[in-house]
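Forum: Protein Structure Q&A
Topic: Joint prediction for protein chains with partners

I've read a bunch of threads here and the consensus seems to be that you should model interacting components together rather than docking separate models afterwards. I'd like to see that in practice. Below is the full input, 717 residues plus whatever partners are listed. Could one of the regulars post the assembled result?
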Amino acid sequence: MKQLLVTAHRVGMALVRRLGLAVFLLFPAMPGIAQVSMQVVTKVVEKDLPYTDGQRIRLVAQKADVVVKGWNRPTVSIRLRLVARHPDRAVAEREVAYHQYVLQAENGRIELSNQFIIPQRAGKLQSQLKAIYEISLPNKALLILKNSFGDIRLTDLAGDVSVNFEFGKLTLEDIGGKLTVVSNYGDIDGRNLDGTLTLKAEKADVSLRELGGTAVLQSRYGKLTVFPATTSHALTIEAARTEILIATKRISDFKFDVISTFADIRVPDWLADQLSKYNGKQVFTYQPAGRKPEITIQNSYSTVVIQGEKTLVDR
Amino acid sequence: MNDSIPQLPEYDPHPDLWARIEADLQADELLSRRLPDLPSYEPKASLWHAIEQNLNTPEPTRVRPLRTQRTSRPLWAGLAAAAVVVLIGSWLLLRPEATDDVRIEYAVEQTDALPGQEPLAPASESLADKRAEEFIARQCAEQQLACQRPEVHELRNQLASLTAEQQRIEREQQIFGNDPVLVQAQVRIENQRAEVTKELITLLRS
Amino acid sequence: MFRLATPTDKHEQGPVRNDPVRSDPVGKDLVEQCRATDRPVAQRAAQRQLFEQYKRAMFSTAYRILNDYDHANDALQDAFVDVFRNLDQFTFRSTLGAWIKTIVVRQAIRKQHLEGRFLTIDEALHDQPAPFRDSLTGAELDAAIRTLPDGARTIFLLVEVEGYAHKEVAEMLGISEGTSKSQTSYAKKLLRQRLS
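Posted by a regular:
Agreed with the consensus. Here's the joint model:
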């Protein structure tokens, strides 16, 4: 047993050392390292496509930063920037051509995509390649968006939006209608969401401010911080191993039904008697007078914190 | 009763025959009682991803790796692949992009980091990872019960999924080099792997 | 692509034993969503849901038959790709679970290259193995099943655990019904020998 403990300790230390090294290598900005001039070659593509109601827009992006904004014109307007960065301009110019894209209407759908095609004989890629989409589209549009390794920002949309992404960050602002988000390792920062939100996140940090409407949030591993708005109809959280913080302006604006397995639920002191514990489970049920939107939470192995007007509870 | 048939002699079975029959019946009964208790198992966490890849086979947005596995693929496969590349290439060239408004812009940026450095960690797992894996495997071999606990199972699955993701990022790095977004993703996975590994080791020690 | 088994009456009736797959039927809606090629996002989500619902039961079957974690994962992957590509052929005559299970079993058998190769009774058996211990647990039984020879193990699992008839097992493996029966009883004897 002692031998095992020693091994475990060694393994742990090795991990810590390795992480330290990772952090060190990630931030190489140390004194003595000279600045480098980067040649940035950008191919800019601009296109407007007419939009008819009910038409589906599909954006399949790779390594792209995507900004999508709703507007009230019946047009999808796209500016796509395909970027190559390298100290040698000739290299960047050659490699910017490895970007390929599609921006077109096809079979009644609007298809937008980018990809990288690197010739076999070209050897190792030398530049940093990245795509940047700036898209304006009718705010009631149907949008399906897929991306990896890039940031996404969606604003002023109220149609039916479905986002599937991994890594990078998704920023959502002023979204109504129907919104479905699937994230793997991608963080989410939302504000003023007031529609039907379905979110499935794995290993993501999710923060939603002024969350109204109906929301079903599923999360495994990661963090979930929600500031529910009084315009909320219902908030359901099905989580595992997720640190959850629900911060309300006033707890009595909501009805709570919280179950946590193998971890604590923390509530303000004045509500401590609504908290019961048995068999590794904790349950917090709180029903203020009147009809109030219901917050239902299930979680395991990670703490759930409910905060109210007096934010005395620390995480 | 029937006198016309000569009386054939009768024989006694082995005295413990009933015991054997009973043992067979009991064994069958016990077996059918225990079979529903067989443990169930979880497939690899990355399996859905693999299935999805398979369902997506004609997906247009794939990075063509620089040097794809030059294994013992037959010549026809190479030719077919070349034909596909040529077809895609000509499709891309001939596609009516003429209506797009396209221009090239140039700019210069100052930066600290050089692109195209070697990826930050070696492509293979580190010794620490190996030792952690060995430790977990050994603990599981020695304490099977501890390893069957659902929380251990769950964490091992997570670890497998993180490892698959890590390998995927390494493959991307083979193509894109030390791209900052890939390095960020790699660090994120490394941190989570470390966290899960530590938690798993703590659980197995307790 | 291999031929999909026509489900028999036995499968229509559901499980012989307590089987989470068959006691938890999937609604028609989900199957329809899995077929909805015109709604790719919803389709993929439905496919994922179906996979999540069945993966554990199906993997356990494949894993027990193949006795190899990686091969079992491969079999499950191929099976589910087949399931989604052939879902149009599913007519609700059996439960979906039974239909998927047959595809998984066939993939596992393929991976094991069992067809036409076996099946001798080659291990010496005591005349009268002792009875099972009463304290026998599922985990112990599982471990003992893993030690059985490939052929006997597969047939035992298909008959005793999955509830297929000898006739179906014979058809799936290209053997006679008699072989299926004798291998099942051989497997049981070996188990008793190892677990007494």
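Chain B is about 60% helix and 5% strand.
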